[in-house]
Write a structure and sequence with these properties.
Shape: globular
Radius of gyration: 13 Å
Structural class: mainly beta
Helix content: under 10%
Low-confidence stretches: none
Order of helices and strands: EEEEEEEEEE
Largest sheet: 6 strands, mixed
Number of strands: 10
Length: 111
C-alpha cells in the first residue's frame, strides 16, 4: 500500500491550492481516504475524508472552503482548498487503509 501526496506550496491568504493523493497497492474504490494536517507545535488533526462511494465529511474549521473528491479511475483523491487562511498553514497528509500515510506536503499561507 502506497500513498503519495503532492500539490502543496506557498499561497497568499484568500488563494487556492489543490492537493492530490495518488494511491496504489489496494482496491482503491473499496476504501475511504482521509486528509490530515499538522501545524508546527500542534497535534495532527483531521481535515476531512471521502468514502469509496464518494461521501464526504469535513472538520468545522474547513467546511465551506475545502472540498474532497476522488477519481477512482486514476486512484487519486483531491483536496481543493479555497479561501485559504494563514491558520491553514501545515503539512498535509493523506491517510488510507491498513494504516498507510502519504509523505506529507507543505502548505504555507501568507497574510
Amino acid at each position: 500500500v502506497q500513498l503519495q501526496a503532492c500539490g502543496g506550496g506557498l499561497v497568499q491568504a484568500g488563494g487556492s491550492l489543490r492537493l492530490s493523493c495518488a494511491a496504489s497497492g489496494f482496491t482503491f474504490d473499496d476504501y475511504a481516504i482521509g486528509w490530515f494536517r499538522q501545524a508546527p507545535g500542534k497535534q495532527r488533526e483531521l481535515v476531512g475524508g471521502i468514502t469509496g462511494d464518494g461521501r464526504t465529511s469535513y472538520a468545522e474549521s474547513v467546511k465551506g472552503r475545502f472540498t474532497i473528491s476522488r477519481d477512482n479511475a486514476k486512484n487519486t483523491v483531491y483536496l481543493q482548498m479555497n479561501s485559504l487562511k494563514p491558520e491553514d498553514t501545515a503539512v498535509y497528509y493523506c491517510f488510507g487503509p491498513f494504516g498507510s500515510w502519504g509523505q506529507g506536503t507543505q502548505v504555507t499561507v501568507s497574510s
